[in-house]
Design brief:
Blueprint lengths: L1 E6 L3 H12 L4 E7 L2 H10 L4 E5 L7 H11 L6 E6 L4 H9 L4 E4 L4 H12 L7 H11 L18 H11 L4 H8 L3 H15 L4 H10 L8
Parallel strand pairs: 1-2, 1-3, 3-4, 4-5
Helix pairs in contact: 2-3, 3-4, 7-9, 7-10, 8-9
Length: 220
C-alpha cells in the first residue's frame, strides 16, 4: 500500500485528489497539510511513502518544504512529487534541485497522476522529457568542465555507460531497449545496477550526473 501525504493550501483541491487516490486499491492518504511547515511536520509523523506537494503556498512554500523533507529523510522515503498549475522551468528546476523525484501539472489526467505516484514510489523519476531537456540544456553550461569523475563510474561496464547516456536523454526503459536492441527487462537491470554503483536515487540524478561528467552535452 502506497502511503500518501497531500499538501495543498486549497481544501477543495485536496478533497479532489483524495477522492481519486482513495479509489485505488494500492493507495491510501495518511495525512493532509495546508502549508509547507505542516507538511514537514506531518512527513515525519505520518511516515508517508509519497508526498504530493503544491508549490505556491503561504509561509513555507513547496520547494522549501521539499528541501527540508528530503534533507531529513536522505536515502529513504518519503519521495516528493511536485504539483503545480504552471508549466514553468523555474519551478521544475527548483523542485528537483531541492530533492523532488518528479514534477507534474495539476491538470494532468488522473491516470497520469496515478502512474506518476507509482513511479516515484518505486524509485523512478517523473519529469516530461521536454522539460528534462530544457532544464539540462539550460543549466549544463553552468556546470564545471573539470568535474572529477567518481571512482564508482569506473566500475560501470561499457553497456552500463551506454544505458546511462540514454537515461540522460530522458528515454524510457522501453525506448532504450529499442535503441540498444535489448529486452526491457535487461535495461531495467542495467539501470538498477547503475543506480546502485553510483549511489543515485532516480533518473533525474542520473541525468544530471551524466551532464556533469560530460557524457552528454547540451543540444543533443
Amino acid at each position: 500500500m502506497i502511503r500518501i501525504l497531500l499538501v495543498d493550501d486549497q481544501e477543495l483541491v485536496r478533497a479532489g485528489f483524495r477522492m481519486v487516490l482513495e479509489a485505488q486499491p494500492d493507495m491510501t492518504v495518511v495525512a493532509e497539510a495546508g502549508d509547507g511547515a505542516a507538511a514537514v511536520s506531518l512527513a515525519a509523523a505520518s511516515t508517508p511513502d509519497v508526498v504530493l506537494m503544491d508549490v505556491r503556498m503561504p509561509g513555507l512554500d513547496g520547494v522549501a518544504a521539499t528541501r527540508e523533507i528530503c534533507a531529513t529523510n536522505r536515502g529513504g522515503p518519503p519521495r516528493v512529487l511536485i504539483l503545480t498549475t504552471f508549466d514553468l522551468d523555474e519551478y521544475a528546476f527548483a523542485g528537483l534541485k531541492a530533492g523532488a523525484s518528479g514534477f507534474l501539472l495539476k491538470d494532468s489526467p488522473p491516470p497520469a497522476l496515478l502512474a506518476a505516484i507509482r513511479a516515484v514510489h518505486v524509485g523512478d523519476a517523473v519529469v516530461a522529457p521536454s522539460t528534462t531537456r530544457r532544464l539540462l540544456d539550460r543549466f549544463a553550461p553552468l556546470l564545471p568542465d573539470d568535474a572529477p569523475v567518481p571512482d564508482a563510474l569506473a566500475t560501470l561496464t561499457d553497456r552500463e555507460r551506454e544505458v546511462l547516456v540514454h537515461v540522460a536523454k530522458a528515454l524510457s526503459n522501453a525506448e532504450i531497449a529499442e535503441a540498444l536492441h535489448l529486452s526491457e527487462a535487461t535495461v531495467k537491470t542495467h539501470v538498477g545496477r547503475i543506480f546502485m554503483k553510483l549511489n543515485l536515487r532516480d533518473r533525474v540524478q542520473a541525468a544530471v550526473l551524466a551532464y556533469e561528467l560530460g557524457l552528454v552535452r547540451p543540444g543533443w
